[in-house]
Design brief:
- Strands 1-2 form a two-stranded antiparallel ribbon.
- The protein is globular.
- The protein contains nine helices and two strands, in the order αββαααααααα.
- 43% of the residues are buried.
- By secondary structure, it is mostly helical.
Length: 273
């Protein structure tokens, strides 16, 4: 069934003359739009003084940070020296190659700018972003599936998908959909539960929980996800770059949670200065 679904979907959503609009680009657009709506909605629930202008400022900063960070992260971490020899290719966004871990770093850095512009505490912006981020992951992984990229190891399970190309003519784990379910849907449900639960959790709880859950889910899925061809396994036929980069996220998430529950800074009632 999944194999038939994959082969029935054209990566190009529609075309206007010579301009093609791909599902991958639409996934980013939809993800950012929904993230903005979630941030605005939760901020109102927390009684924060976050209006439409502040939300737009946050989203513009984060969008730039994510896109630049994701691209640079991929080139540095997964390029295996190629982009050092061909630096102009770093700007070739149309050729693909985006790293979640790089995008996350870009989001954290751009959040500093957003906090200064909006005068909203940095950790509050990080918490709001952590609630919205899983939606972007959900749509992004769907787009990865449609593009036939980031597939898994060979499998004889009934939902295996033949992606073709470099993946060959053998069924593989649709790890893009595994990630969409765990990193996207499951984490989003947990984030919403924490966001709307009374009393509100201390500032930093959302981002700390997100980092721990994402890191754990990513490591789990990496066991059945095919590593990038240019890197392969880093050790023992099982250790991947995705695992290595996810361990620090879990450690960082634990440290943030410890800090959050020690400081117990409230989310509710925070106002712009």
């Amino acid at each position: 069934m999944l194999d038939s679904l994959y082969h029935a979907i054209d990566p190009v959503a529609f075309a206007i003359g010579p301009v093609e609009v791909r599902w991958y680009g639409l996934a980013y657009l939809i993800g950012f739009a929904l993230a903005g709506a979630i941030i605005y909605s939760v901020a109102k629930k927390w009684k924060l003084d976050v209006d439409a202008d502040a939300t737009l400022s946050i989203m513009l900063c984060v969008m730039v940070g994510i896109l630049l960070g994701a691209r640079l992260g991929y080139c540095l971490l997964y390029g295996d020296g190629y982009y050092i020899q061909h630096p102009l290719k770093i700007l070739a966004f149309n050729e693909g190659g985006m790293s979640f871990h790089g995008g996350l770093a870009g989001a954290f850095i751009s959040g500093i700018v957003a906090a200064k512009i909006t005068r909203i505490p940095y950790m509050t912006i990080a918490d709001l972003g952590a609630i919205a981020a899983p939606l972007g992951l959900l749509f992004g992984r769907f787009a990865n599936f449609i593009n036939g990229e980031l597939w898994g190891a060979p499998t004889d399970l009934p939902w295996g998908v033949v992606f073709g190309g470099a993946g060959g003519d053998i069924p593989r784990h649709p790890t893009q959909l595994y990630e969409a379910a765990l990193e996207g849907l499951v984490i989003f449900c947990v984030m919403l539960y924490l966001a709307y639960r009374k009393p509100l959790k201390p500032r930093g709880t959302m981002v700390g929980t997100f980092l721990i859950m994402y890191g754990a889910f990513r490591i789990l899925i990496e066991f059945v996800r095919q590593p990038d061809a240019q890197l392969g396994y880093l050790f023992g036929g099982w250790l991947t770059m995705g695992m290595v980069l996810s361990v620090p996220l879990i450690v960082c998430g634990v440290c943030i949670l410890i800090w959050a529950h020690k400081e117990k800074l409230p989310e509710e009632g925070v106002r712009q200065g």
